[in-house]
Amino acid sequence: MQLALGRIRSVRLAVIVRRLGEWWLTEFLNLFPERIAEWLSGRGRAMLLLAASQEGATLDLLNSTHTRIASERVSLSGDMLPHIDRFLRSHGVEPEDADIGLQLPADSVFSRRLLLPAEAADAIDAIVAQDLAKKTPFKPEDVYTDYVTLDHADRNKVEVRQWVVRRRYVDQTLERFKIDIERVSFVMSDSWDMERPPPLISLRPKEGSRSAWFQKTTIALCCSAIVLAVLGGGLRYWKQQAEIDQLAAQIAATSTKAQQVRTLVDQLQEKKNALLHLRLQRSEVPGLIDLWDEVTRVLPSHSWLTEFRLVETAGKREEQVAISGFSSAAPSLVGIIDSSQLFFDAALTSPTAFDSTEGRERFALQVKVKMPDMLKEARR
Predict the structure, then answer these.
(1) How many domains does the chain have?
(2) What are 369's strand-pairing partners?
(3) Whole-number Å distance between alpha carbons of 72 and 60
(4) Does 14 fall in a domain?
(5) What is the pLDDT along the chain (380 residues), one digit of tens a residue?
(6) Pair (165, 304) in one structural domain
(7) How far, in Å, CA of 219 to CA of 11, rounded?
(8) Pairing relation of β-strands 200-202 and 186-189?
(9) In what order do the strands lie in the sheet containing 186-189?
């Protein structure tokens, strides 16, 4: 079990590295003009598509993106090769620089779609061949087949499009054109204008050298990406360290000023406390104005009141203040008001609710007023 899990992790890592290499190679090729990028990636060859009809034959010249560049109708009588060479040269393409393909009717090409797990990306050739043999009546020696892999919405899946054509359909078309199969590189369905990717079946084995070049280039670009990432990280760390050193110097330079400000704040707080002490001495029981001033003093700047009410409790020698309003941090008001020398036992009387119009929390709070005995204890 552990071996199987280890193999799955290694396969997933290989898939991630492959995707990273493909993305980096694509971005690298985008740095060059289109022609150079096509030459580097081997996508610059022209394609000549031969289509037979009752009236004759149609020659379509396509670029590497399967866009039709030129088209011409010719007769099927005689040898087609001279017509092909003349047509290609008339459009600036040498015959050896073009891949010749056959266009067959859509009903001659069988299309399949498979969804495979991403872990099977390195064994798609074998899986597709086995699936074709098990689930279709086709025999390998009777058909030509090819496939492409596509990105799927689920990153853990790989979509495979496979096309199959019987060899006898290809041989019959070649007889009409009087061309040897060695001169033909691919077969394409006539429905390719409506489908992406186009249903194209290669009749030649894929070039190992190009695949090896792609692999080596991908590895080299991945290594260069790692080097660039390390350099970028080092440069960023150096800049951050320089900024930290600069901030440390600024902090050291302003520490004295900060201490002076702190001293002034303490002195101001002492004066405020003395003023409050004088106000409390004016009466044994604080009046409504005193309570209003105290609430106004302790409330933060992000809070305001919509209601201030003094409530006398029946049967008890207690006074309570009920306030309501809006605040950016309503729950914290309980502790703030409780810290006052005039109030105690503060509590929210209803849950806070966010008011979209005011952009703040609506609150309702009730707090008890300290009686004279409590005030004497506070003065000690």
Answers:
(1) 2
(2) 343
(3) 7
(4) no
(5) 444 445 555 555 655 666 666 666 666 666 666 655 555 555 557 888 888 877 788 888 887 777 788 888 888 777 788 888 898 899 888 888 888 899 888 888 998 888 888 777 778 888 888 888 888 898 989 999 999 888 777 778 888 989 999 999 999 888 888 888 888 989 988 776 555 678 889 887 654 444 445 555 666 666 667 877 888 888 888 888 888 988 888 888 888 888 888 889 889 988 888 777 666 655 556 778 888 888 889 999 888 898 998 887 765 667 889 999 999 988 888 899 988 888 888 888 888 888 888 889 999 999 998 876 644 444 44
(6) no
(7) 17
(8) antiparallel
(9) 68-74, 57-62, 46-52, 98-104, 186-189, 200-202
Q: Are residues 200 and 65 in the same domain?
A: yes
Of 39, 25, 10, 42, the closest CA to residue 215 belongs to 25
Residue with the two structure tokens 């760390």: 237
Query: Is the pTM above the cut of 0.70?
Result: no
Among the candidates 135, 170, 205, a domain finishes at: 205
Note down the domain range covering 70.
Answer: 45-205
